[in-house]
User: Fold Olfactory receptor from Erinaceus europaeus.
Amino acid sequence: MKYNNSVNQFKLLGLTQDPDRQKIVFIIFFIFYVATVMGNLLIIVTVKCSRMLGSPMYFFLFYLSLTDFCFSTSITPRLLVDSLSSKKIISYNECLTQVFALHLFGAMEIFVLILMSADRYVAICKPLRYPTIMRRQVCIILIILSWTGSFIHSIAQIMLALELPFCGPNLIDHYCCDLQPLLKLACTDTYAINLQLVCNSGVLCTTGFVMLIISYIVILYSLRNHSAEGRRKALSTCTSHVTVVVLSFGPCIFIYTRPPITFAVDKMVEIFYTIGIPCLNPLIYTLRNAEMKNAMRKLWHIKTATGSRD
Assistant:
Protein backbone atom coordinates (compact mmCIF):
# COMPACT_ATOMS: atom_id res chain seq x y z
CA MET A 1 0.00 0.00 0.00
CA LYS A 2 1.40 3.35 -0.96
CA TYR A 3 1.41 6.12 1.64
CA ASN A 4 1.25 9.67 0.37
CA ASN A 5 1.10 11.39 3.77
CA SER A 6 2.90 11.79 7.07
CA VAL A 7 0.01 10.53 9.24
CA ASN A 8 0.01 6.84 10.17
CA GLN A 9 -2.80 6.87 12.71
CA PHE A 10 -5.96 8.77 13.59
CA LYS A 11 -7.83 9.52 16.79
CA LEU A 12 -11.59 9.03 16.73
CA LEU A 13 -13.46 11.55 18.85
CA GLY A 14 -16.45 9.19 19.04
CA LEU A 15 -19.94 10.18 20.13
CA THR A 16 -18.96 11.88 23.37
CA GLN A 17 -15.90 12.77 25.43
CA ASP A 18 -17.69 12.54 28.78
CA PRO A 19 -16.67 9.33 30.69
CA ASP A 20 -20.12 8.81 32.21
CA ARG A 21 -21.87 9.23 28.85
CA GLN A 22 -19.35 6.86 27.27
CA LYS A 23 -20.53 4.13 29.65
CA ILE A 24 -24.12 4.82 28.61
CA VAL A 25 -23.06 4.65 24.96
CA PHE A 26 -21.43 1.27 25.61
CA ILE A 27 -24.54 -0.18 27.28
CA ILE A 28 -26.95 1.10 24.61
CA PHE A 29 -24.96 -0.06 21.62
CA PHE A 30 -23.96 -3.34 23.23
CA ILE A 31 -27.69 -4.13 23.52
CA PHE A 32 -28.20 -3.05 19.89
CA TYR A 33 -25.31 -5.21 18.70
CA VAL A 34 -26.45 -8.31 20.61
CA ALA A 35 -29.97 -7.84 19.20
CA THR A 36 -28.53 -7.40 15.69
CA VAL A 37 -26.37 -10.53 15.92
CA MET A 38 -29.12 -12.69 17.40
CA GLY A 39 -31.83 -11.43 15.04
CA ASN A 40 -29.84 -11.83 11.86
CA LEU A 41 -28.32 -15.17 12.86
CA LEU A 42 -31.82 -16.41 13.68
CA ILE A 43 -32.98 -15.54 10.16
CA ILE A 44 -29.83 -17.04 8.59
CA VAL A 45 -30.24 -20.34 10.49
CA THR A 46 -33.99 -20.49 9.87
CA VAL A 47 -33.70 -19.93 6.11
CA LYS A 48 -30.80 -22.37 5.86
CA CYS A 49 -32.46 -25.15 7.83
CA SER A 50 -36.14 -24.79 6.94
CA ARG A 51 -37.58 -26.51 3.87
CA MET A 52 -40.57 -24.17 4.06
CA LEU A 53 -38.41 -21.20 3.05
CA GLY A 54 -36.94 -22.40 -0.23
CA SER A 55 -38.28 -19.60 -2.45
CA PRO A 56 -36.01 -16.95 -4.02
CA MET A 57 -37.42 -14.31 -1.65
CA TYR A 58 -35.94 -16.13 1.35
CA PHE A 59 -32.77 -16.91 -0.57
CA PHE A 60 -32.23 -13.15 -0.92
CA LEU A 61 -33.38 -12.54 2.67
CA PHE A 62 -30.61 -14.89 3.80
CA TYR A 63 -28.02 -12.68 2.12
CA LEU A 64 -29.65 -9.50 3.42
CA SER A 65 -29.32 -10.81 6.99
CA LEU A 66 -25.75 -11.96 6.33
CA THR A 67 -24.93 -8.51 4.98
CA ASP A 68 -26.57 -6.75 7.94
CA PHE A 69 -24.61 -8.93 10.36
CA CYS A 70 -21.30 -8.13 8.62
CA PHE A 71 -22.22 -4.45 8.18
CA SER A 72 -22.88 -3.99 11.89
CA THR A 73 -19.82 -6.04 12.88
CA SER A 74 -17.57 -3.80 10.80
CA ILE A 75 -18.64 -0.78 12.89
CA THR A 76 -20.15 -1.61 16.28
CA PRO A 77 -17.38 -3.62 18.02
CA ARG A 78 -14.94 -0.78 17.36
CA LEU A 79 -17.45 1.72 18.77
CA LEU A 80 -17.90 -0.43 21.88
CA VAL A 81 -14.16 -0.72 22.49
CA ASP A 82 -13.63 3.01 21.96
CA SER A 83 -16.45 3.89 24.36
CA LEU A 84 -14.41 2.26 27.16
CA SER A 85 -11.08 3.71 26.04
CA SER A 86 -9.63 7.19 26.42
CA LYS A 87 -7.25 6.88 23.44
CA LYS A 88 -9.53 5.78 20.57
CA ILE A 89 -6.54 5.40 18.24
CA ILE A 90 -7.01 3.73 14.84
CA SER A 91 -4.13 3.10 12.45
CA TYR A 92 -4.14 4.28 8.84
CA ASN A 93 -4.51 0.72 7.53
CA GLU A 94 -7.28 -0.11 10.00
CA CYS A 95 -9.09 3.07 8.99
CA LEU A 96 -8.96 2.16 5.29
CA THR A 97 -10.08 -1.39 6.12
CA GLN A 98 -13.12 0.02 7.90
CA VAL A 99 -13.89 2.26 4.91
CA PHE A 100 -13.67 -0.80 2.64
CA ALA A 101 -15.94 -2.93 4.85
CA LEU A 102 -18.45 -0.12 5.35
CA HIS A 103 -18.91 0.37 1.61
CA LEU A 104 -18.68 -3.32 0.70
CA PHE A 105 -21.57 -4.34 2.92
CA GLY A 106 -23.45 -1.08 2.42
CA ALA A 107 -23.42 -1.56 -1.36
CA MET A 108 -24.30 -5.24 -0.98
CA GLU A 109 -27.39 -4.31 1.04
CA ILE A 110 -28.50 -1.97 -1.77
CA PHE A 111 -28.02 -4.68 -4.40
CA VAL A 112 -29.85 -7.32 -2.34
CA LEU A 113 -32.80 -4.99 -1.76
CA ILE A 114 -32.96 -4.40 -5.53
CA LEU A 115 -32.94 -8.17 -6.12
CA MET A 116 -35.72 -8.64 -3.56
CA SER A 117 -37.86 -6.03 -5.30
CA ALA A 118 -37.17 -7.70 -8.66
CA ASP A 119 -38.26 -11.01 -7.16
CA ARG A 120 -41.52 -9.47 -5.91
CA TYR A 121 -42.10 -7.82 -9.31
CA VAL A 122 -41.76 -11.13 -11.18
CA ALA A 123 -43.83 -13.03 -8.59
CA ILE A 124 -46.73 -10.54 -8.72
CA CYS A 125 -46.61 -9.24 -12.30
CA LYS A 126 -45.45 -12.41 -14.12
CA PRO A 127 -46.59 -15.29 -11.88
CA LEU A 128 -46.73 -17.92 -14.64
CA ARG A 129 -43.12 -17.28 -15.65
CA TYR A 130 -41.84 -16.89 -12.09
CA PRO A 131 -40.40 -20.43 -11.67
CA THR A 132 -38.50 -20.08 -14.95
CA ILE A 133 -37.21 -16.53 -14.47
CA MET A 134 -36.26 -16.83 -10.79
CA ARG A 135 -34.81 -20.31 -10.83
CA ARG A 136 -32.04 -21.22 -8.39
CA GLN A 137 -29.16 -20.85 -10.86
CA VAL A 138 -30.28 -17.34 -11.81
CA CYS A 139 -30.51 -16.30 -8.15
CA ILE A 140 -26.99 -17.57 -7.47
CA ILE A 141 -25.61 -15.67 -10.46
CA LEU A 142 -27.37 -12.49 -9.33
CA ILE A 143 -25.86 -12.79 -5.85
CA ILE A 144 -22.38 -13.34 -7.30
CA LEU A 145 -22.80 -10.27 -9.49
CA SER A 146 -23.94 -8.29 -6.42
CA TRP A 147 -20.85 -9.26 -4.45
CA THR A 148 -18.69 -8.39 -7.44
CA GLY A 149 -20.34 -4.98 -7.85
CA SER A 150 -19.99 -4.29 -4.12
CA PHE A 151 -16.30 -5.20 -4.21
CA ILE A 152 -15.67 -2.90 -7.18
CA HIS A 153 -17.53 -0.09 -5.41
CA SER A 154 -15.43 -0.54 -2.25
CA ILE A 155 -12.18 -0.61 -4.20
CA ALA A 156 -13.22 2.69 -5.81
CA GLN A 157 -13.70 4.20 -2.33
CA ILE A 158 -10.28 3.01 -1.23
CA MET A 159 -8.68 4.50 -4.35
CA LEU A 160 -10.28 7.85 -3.48
CA ALA A 161 -9.00 7.59 0.11
CA LEU A 162 -5.47 6.82 -1.09
CA GLU A 163 -5.46 10.09 -3.04
CA LEU A 164 -5.87 12.07 0.18
CA PRO A 165 -2.65 13.46 1.72
CA PHE A 166 -2.72 13.90 5.51
CA CYS A 167 -0.20 16.14 7.22
CA GLY A 168 -2.07 16.87 10.45
CA PRO A 169 -4.22 17.21 12.47
CA ASN A 170 -5.35 13.60 12.81
CA LEU A 171 -8.55 14.01 14.89
CA ILE A 172 -11.59 12.44 13.20
CA ASP A 173 -14.81 13.93 14.58
CA HIS A 174 -16.68 10.69 14.15
CA TYR A 175 -17.07 7.22 15.65
CA CYS A 176 -15.82 5.39 12.53
CA CYS A 177 -13.73 5.93 9.43
CA ASP A 178 -15.51 7.02 6.29
CA LEU A 179 -14.54 9.23 3.38
CA GLN A 180 -16.48 12.30 4.48
CA PRO A 181 -14.66 12.68 7.84
CA LEU A 182 -11.34 11.94 6.11
CA LEU A 183 -11.96 14.63 3.50
CA LYS A 184 -12.04 17.24 6.28
CA LEU A 185 -8.52 16.25 7.41
CA ALA A 186 -6.87 16.18 4.00
CA CYS A 187 -4.32 18.95 3.43
CA THR A 188 -5.41 19.54 -0.17
CA ASP A 189 -8.40 20.75 -2.15
CA THR A 190 -10.95 17.92 -1.89
CA TYR A 191 -13.60 19.32 -4.24
CA ALA A 192 -12.80 16.86 -7.06
CA ILE A 193 -12.60 13.86 -4.72
CA ASN A 194 -15.90 14.79 -3.04
CA LEU A 195 -17.47 15.08 -6.49
CA GLN A 196 -16.23 11.57 -7.30
CA LEU A 197 -17.63 10.35 -3.99
CA VAL A 198 -21.05 11.79 -4.80
CA CYS A 199 -20.89 10.31 -8.31
CA ASN A 200 -20.03 6.92 -6.83
CA SER A 201 -21.82 6.37 -3.52
CA GLY A 202 -24.40 9.11 -4.05
CA VAL A 203 -25.48 7.89 -7.46
CA LEU A 204 -25.56 4.28 -6.21
CA CYS A 205 -27.91 5.21 -3.33
CA THR A 206 -30.13 7.52 -5.38
CA THR A 207 -30.38 5.28 -8.45
CA GLY A 208 -31.14 2.24 -6.30
CA PHE A 209 -33.84 4.14 -4.42
CA VAL A 210 -35.50 5.43 -7.61
CA MET A 211 -35.42 1.95 -9.17
CA LEU A 212 -37.02 0.42 -6.09
CA ILE A 213 -39.74 3.06 -5.81
CA ILE A 214 -40.62 2.66 -9.51
CA SER A 215 -40.74 -1.12 -9.20
CA TYR A 216 -43.12 -0.96 -6.23
CA ILE A 217 -45.34 1.57 -8.01
CA VAL A 218 -45.59 -0.88 -10.92
CA ILE A 219 -46.33 -3.71 -8.49
CA LEU A 220 -49.08 -1.74 -6.75
CA TYR A 221 -50.59 -0.80 -10.11
CA SER A 222 -50.63 -4.43 -11.24
CA LEU A 223 -52.41 -5.53 -8.05
CA ARG A 224 -55.65 -3.92 -9.22
CA ASN A 225 -56.38 -7.08 -11.25
CA HIS A 226 -55.75 -9.47 -8.34
CA SER A 227 -58.28 -10.91 -5.93
CA ALA A 228 -58.75 -9.34 -2.51
CA GLU A 229 -56.85 -12.18 -0.84
CA GLY A 230 -54.05 -11.95 -3.40
CA ARG A 231 -53.77 -8.19 -2.88
CA ARG A 232 -53.67 -8.61 0.89
CA LYS A 233 -50.88 -11.19 0.76
CA ALA A 234 -48.84 -9.23 -1.81
CA LEU A 235 -49.26 -5.96 0.09
CA SER A 236 -48.20 -7.64 3.34
CA THR A 237 -44.93 -8.79 1.77
CA CYS A 238 -44.27 -5.56 -0.13
CA THR A 239 -44.95 -3.39 2.92
CA SER A 240 -42.01 -4.98 4.73
CA HIS A 241 -39.75 -4.39 1.73
CA VAL A 242 -40.86 -0.79 1.25
CA THR A 243 -40.33 -0.07 4.96
CA VAL A 244 -36.76 -1.39 4.79
CA VAL A 245 -36.09 0.53 1.56
CA VAL A 246 -37.24 3.87 3.00
CA LEU A 247 -35.36 3.37 6.27
CA SER A 248 -32.16 2.27 4.51
CA PHE A 249 -32.01 4.67 1.59
CA GLY A 250 -33.08 7.83 3.43
CA PRO A 251 -29.91 8.04 5.58
CA CYS A 252 -27.74 6.74 2.71
CA ILE A 253 -28.89 9.52 0.38
CA PHE A 254 -28.50 12.13 3.14
CA ILE A 255 -24.92 11.05 3.86
CA TYR A 256 -23.53 10.58 0.35
CA THR A 257 -25.32 13.06 -1.92
CA ARG A 258 -24.31 16.43 -0.50
CA PRO A 259 -21.25 18.70 -0.27
CA PRO A 260 -18.79 18.10 2.61
CA ILE A 261 -20.78 20.25 5.03
CA THR A 262 -21.14 19.25 8.68
CA PHE A 263 -24.61 19.11 10.22
CA ALA A 264 -25.49 18.55 13.87
CA VAL A 265 -27.46 15.39 13.02
CA ASP A 266 -24.71 13.74 10.94
CA LYS A 267 -23.58 11.27 13.60
CA MET A 268 -27.14 10.35 14.57
CA VAL A 269 -28.12 9.72 10.96
CA GLU A 270 -25.07 7.53 10.37
CA ILE A 271 -25.65 5.64 13.62
CA PHE A 272 -29.18 4.86 12.47
CA TYR A 273 -27.82 3.77 9.07
CA THR A 274 -24.91 1.61 10.28
CA ILE A 275 -26.26 0.27 13.60
CA GLY A 276 -30.01 0.86 13.71
CA ILE A 277 -30.99 -0.54 10.31
CA PRO A 278 -29.18 -3.91 10.71
CA CYS A 279 -31.02 -4.30 14.03
CA LEU A 280 -34.45 -3.32 12.67
CA ASN A 281 -34.41 -5.43 9.50
CA PRO A 282 -34.80 -8.80 11.31
CA LEU A 283 -37.74 -7.40 13.29
CA ILE A 284 -39.45 -6.06 10.17
CA TYR A 285 -39.04 -9.32 8.23
CA THR A 286 -40.07 -11.63 11.07
CA LEU A 287 -42.88 -9.76 12.83
CA ARG A 288 -44.72 -9.10 9.55
CA ASN A 289 -44.00 -12.47 7.91
CA ALA A 290 -46.22 -15.41 8.85
CA GLU A 291 -44.14 -17.95 6.89
CA MET A 292 -40.96 -16.91 8.70
CA LYS A 293 -42.63 -17.10 12.12
CA ASN A 294 -44.10 -20.53 11.33
CA ALA A 295 -40.72 -21.80 10.14
CA MET A 296 -39.07 -20.54 13.34
CA ARG A 297 -41.72 -22.24 15.49
CA LYS A 298 -41.32 -25.51 13.58
CA LEU A 299 -37.54 -25.48 13.93
CA TRP A 300 -37.87 -24.66 17.63
CA HIS A 301 -40.28 -27.57 18.16
CA ILE A 302 -37.96 -29.94 16.28
CA LYS A 303 -35.00 -28.76 18.36
CA THR A 304 -37.00 -29.11 21.58
CA ALA A 305 -38.23 -32.58 20.65
CA THR A 306 -34.72 -33.70 19.72
CA GLY A 307 -33.34 -32.34 22.99
CA SER A 308 -36.02 -34.09 25.06
CA ARG A 309 -35.28 -37.45 23.38
CA ASP A 310 -31.59 -37.03 24.18
Remarks:
- The chain has one domain: 9-309.
